[in-house]
Amino acid sequence: MKKKNSDEIDLIDIFIVIKQNFIKVLLITIVFIFLMFIYLISQKSEQISYTAKTKILPISTFDVSDYSAYNSYLKEYSLKKQYKLFKKNEGDSNIAFNIGTPNLIDNFNLINKKILLDLFIDKLKEREIFIEAIKKFDLVNEENFQFQSEYENKVREIANRINIINYTNEPSLIPDWNLVFQVTNKDKWDSFLYYVEDKTNEEVRKYLIENFNRLVSHENNLKNYKIEDLDVLIQNNQSDSKLQEKLLKDKKMMITDQSMKRLQNLFITTPLLDKEKFYASKLIVHSTEYNIKTQQTSKKVSLISIAIIGFIFGIIYVIIFNSVKNRAKKSNL
């Protein structure tokens, strides 16, 4: 019991000491805060940081209409087989002459907002355009790196930190794609986005043109192969006048077929041939959301933390100082 009473008295004494020396505790706390404040302002000024969120929009319904003639032709003619399959009976065996060609739909795609948006996103996900833009707008200072490989690795690291996020979970809806990244310079980031938009659209445009031309060449080659096959069949079946007539007719149909030429003519009417008019998707740069994430918060946390530390240190100091003072008094007695 005596020990408990002694402890209680000691605890009360501590509160009394703190109360009597509260000014000292307060002064020590202020000194800690002041020193931290001096330290913070002596540091290199931190730039304001933003979380930039930029929406990616597909082409408008009005712009889709520029592809309607091409799409309509492709849908109409690609759903039908161009040529038939003939058979010739020879005794107990059947000889099949497959002179059919694949549907156009098997190779050529309709051009709509979803396809264009998907191509735009796929190109962004390759990250190469981000890397070009990071270098172009000096988002990473090359002078800070001793070796070129270190610089290249840092650039790629920054490119990989640019988030391409789809906020739509409903598969039936057009995806709500956004670019999200931490930036410090809004003007430089805006320029970065405009460059990425232009470069990505141009890459998509080139891909669509090259892919179309490649498919046209492929289809024309297939057509020529089929004509060659028909020539062989005609040569090998001269004794069958009825089949000869059908094969010659089919050969003429293939030779005079204008489907691919018409598709090419309609393709030329689309915005793909006009670099200034074409776009697969747009970055809505002017509506970019910039949410401030400054270093002020961390500075406030630092000052509050040091204030608590200073206050605790001040309490410990006055308690120890008072204890030493009392011991000195007792020793003098």
Q: What does the model show?
A:
This protein has helices at residues 2-20, 22-42, 61-64, 68-78, 113-125, 128-136, 148-160, 186-236, 241-256, 259-268, 296-332, and strands at 49-58, 85-90, 93-98, 163-166, 177-183, 281-283, 289-293. With 333 residues, it is α+β, with helices and mostly antiparallel strands. It folds into 2 domains: 2-45 and 296-332, no CATH class; 50-127 and 162-293, Bacterial polysaccharide co-polymerase-like. α2 (22-42) packs antiparallel against α11. It is rod-shaped. The model is unreliable at 1-9, 81-88 and 91-95 (pLDDT under 50).
Summarize this, please?
With 333 residues, the chain is of the alpha+beta class. It has two domains: 2-45 and 296-332, no CATH class; 50-127 and 162-293, Bacterial polysaccharide co-polymerase-like.
In whole angstroms, the N-to-C terminal distance is: 29 Å
Query: Can you give the mean pLDDT?
Result: 84
Task: Report the CATH architecture of the largest domain.
Answer: 2-Layer Sandwich
Order of helical and strand elements: HHEHHEEHHHEEHHHEEH
The major pleated sheet works out as: 5 strands, antiparallel
CATH T-level fold name of the largest domain? Bacterial polysaccharide co-polymerase-like
Name the CATH class of the largest domain.
Answer: Alpha Beta
Shape: rod-shaped
Helicity range: 55-70%
Number of strand segments: 7
Spatial extent as radius of gyration: 39 Å
Structural class by secondary-structure content = alpha+beta
Integer tally of domains: 2
Strand content: 5-15%
Q: pLDDT under 50 segments (min length 5)?
A: 1-9, 81-88, 91-95
- Helical element count? 11
